[in-house]
Amino acid sequence: MKKEGFVSAGTDAGNYLILLKLPEPCTVEVGALGEIPMEQGWYIYTGSARKNLSARIERHKRKTRKKKHWHIDYLTPHAETIQALPIVTLCNIECNLAAELEELGGKGINGFGCSDCRCKSHLFYFSGSPIENRDFQNMLFRYRYAEFNCDSSPSGLDHKGSY
Fold first, then answer.
1. DSSP assignment of 17-41, as one string?
2. Number of domains forming the structure of the chain
3. How far, in Å, CA of 48 to CA of 94, rounded?
4. Close Cβ partners of 9 (under 8 Å, ≥ 6 residues apart)
């Protein structure tokens, strides 16, 4: 019997983390959110794609040649580095990831990327590289490789959001 979150080879749906490094402080005009001051350092954005995950990620990684649709589109042109970390799953764990990024010490940017849920933010600031943080690495490993159903994440959080 398959678990709800099990995906077969070739599935192009899931969630993702976009890591961005800002080389210097800047102010970003973000649609209805207005001007947001951004510190120098690392930001992690969490998102989801019910289909075409790889195309969504590639779009987010582009700095130019795109219409600004998502909040992250306003920030990417300012980034020195953009790295994507996909999590292939049929479950919507975007809010779970946001909660864990906050638990890891990420400072949420109020209202960013979360207009369709009750989260405070889906963008988190870290002064140092999250990739070098063992707790971040462990979180990513759990979400990428642990078996779980869509009613609970491998971290035990209870956000329900199956596709």
1. EEEEEESS-EEEEEGGGEEEEE-SE
2. 1
3. 6
4. none
Please choose, from the candidates 20, 148, 12, 133, the residue with its C-alpha nearest in 3D space to the C-alpha of residue 93.
148
Token pair of 99, please?
């909660």
1 assigned to some structural domain: no
SS3 158: coil
46 domain residue, yes or no: yes
Q: How far is CA 24 from the centre of its chain?
A: 21
User: Residue 44: which H helix or E strand, with range?
Assistant: strand 41-49
The pTM assigned to this predicted structure is: 0.85
Domain extent for 129? 14-145
Q: Is 88 helix (H, G, I), strand (E, B) or coil?
A: strand
Q: Answer whether 56's CB lies under 8 Å from 49's CB.
A: yes
Instruction: Identify whether 161 is part of a domain.
Output: no
Rounded to whole angstroms, the Cα distance separating 133 from 114 reads 25
At 32-77, the pLDDT tens digits run 899 999 999 999 999 999 899 999 999 989 887 778 888 999 999 9
